[in-house]
Amino acid sequence: MTPLFKSLTVAASLALSVSLPAFADQASEDYVRENANHALSMLNDPELDSLERREAFQGLMNQFTDLERVSRFVIGRYARVFNDQEFDAYYDAYARYALATYEAELDKYRGEEIVVTGSTDRNDRDSIVETVVRRPTGDLPVRWRVLSTDDGEYQVVDVALELDGNLLWLAIEQRAQFMALLDRSNGSSAELIRTINEMTARLEARALTQRTDAGEVTGASSVQAGR
């Protein structure tokens, strides 16, 4: 992501986190505790090579997050403007980008544990779960917005990370960025997809470099990453 998350979204992120009713949601907390730590354990599993780790992480994130819901949110009104073919092509690009984004950010916390410190209910189906990543250099706050479904399941629809001293929500930042691009390009899905693919390529290249430096990349994963 280009500076992934900048001051444009600080006010919007604060709007999600203040003046909310303080009702702890144990089920949402348990959901985040289990799945977030599972994701980190996958990223830190020495028995998985780079490609295997990425495939396992992708499967978990497909269950953990409601990617279709998020993909519609981040393009706002254009979700209704795109035809089916345009939206499908955009969604494929966005899903790859979202995986690369979460993987790149969570990869920074490998080897650590996510500890739930509390939660706040926005309503009976919408909670903000507050966590910290325990690190020798100091705890790092991470917040998760969790929605419950009609069948009692839970899914994450946004994550807030501390970047450059600000706690910023990823989906809110993406919405600001993508909507601005679409407004400038008269709603061009092709231009949006091209930009998303470029950002994804940068994230994946950075991850590959980090893993190569760490001696983790196998021949198979190197070939896959170069496709």
Spell out the CATH superfamily: Tgt2/MlaC
C-alpha Rg, in Å?
18 Å
Distance between the termini: 20 Å
CATH architecture: Roll
What's the CATH class label? Alpha Beta
Structural class: alpha+beta
Mean pLDDT: 77
Q: Helical element count? A: 9
Query: What fold name stands as the CATH topology?
Result: Nuclear Transport Factor 2, Chain: A
Give the fraction of residues assigned to helices: 40-55%
Instruction: Give me the strand/helix succession.
Output: HHHHHHEEEEEHHH
* Overall 3D form: globular
Strands of the biggest beta sheet: in what spatial order? 1-2-3-4-5
* Number of separate structural domains: 1
**Proportion of residues in extended strands:** 15-25%
Low-confidence stretches: 1-24, 218-227
Number of E-type strands: 5
Query: Mind describing the biggest β-sheet?
Result: 5 strands, antiparallel
Short description:
By secondary structure, the chain is of the alpha+beta class. The chain has helices at 10-17, 26-43, 50-64, 67-73, 78-81, 84-107, 170-184, 189-213, 219-225; strands spanning 114-123, 126-133, 140-148, 154-163, 166-169.
